[in-house]
Amino acid sequence: MTDKPARGSIGNEIFDEVERLVAGGMNKSQAFKEISTNSGREEGTVAANYYRVARQRGEGGLVDPRQR
């Protein structure tokens, strides 16, 4: 059995890290790039994870929930 992170935990970690970096003075694009560099993930993947979690959390008008 492998030690995989819990389902959905990476997205939440990325969201929290972006929020921390933005609070420290970076813009989101810079935060996505830094996390991408540090984690080895593509910058677009980091951004997609961030906005998916933001939609799930309903972050105060940050992004609109998807219509199905």
Q: Report, as a whole number of angstroms, the end-to-end distance.
A: 36 Å
- Enumerate how many helices there are, as a single number: 3
| Rg calculated over all Cα atoms | 13 Å
* Overall mean confidence score, pLDDT: 87
**Helical percentage:** 55-70%
Low-confidence stretches: none
Residue fraction in strands: under 5%
Number of strands: 0
**What is the oligomer described by this structure?**
single chain
**Largest sheet: number of strands, sense, barrel closure:** none
Give the topology string: H per helix, E per strand: HHH
What structural class results from the helix and strand content?
mainly alpha
How would you describe the shape? globular
Q: Key features?
A:
globular, mainly alpha, 68 residues
Question: Which SSEs are present, and which pair or pack?
Answer:
Layout lengths: L8 H15 L4 H12 L3 H15 L11
Could you characterize the architecture of this molecule?
The chain is an all-alpha fold. It has three helices and no strands. Helix 1 crosses helix 2, helix 1 crosses helix 3 and helix 2 packs across helix 3. It is globular, with a radius of gyration of 13 Å. The termini are far apart.
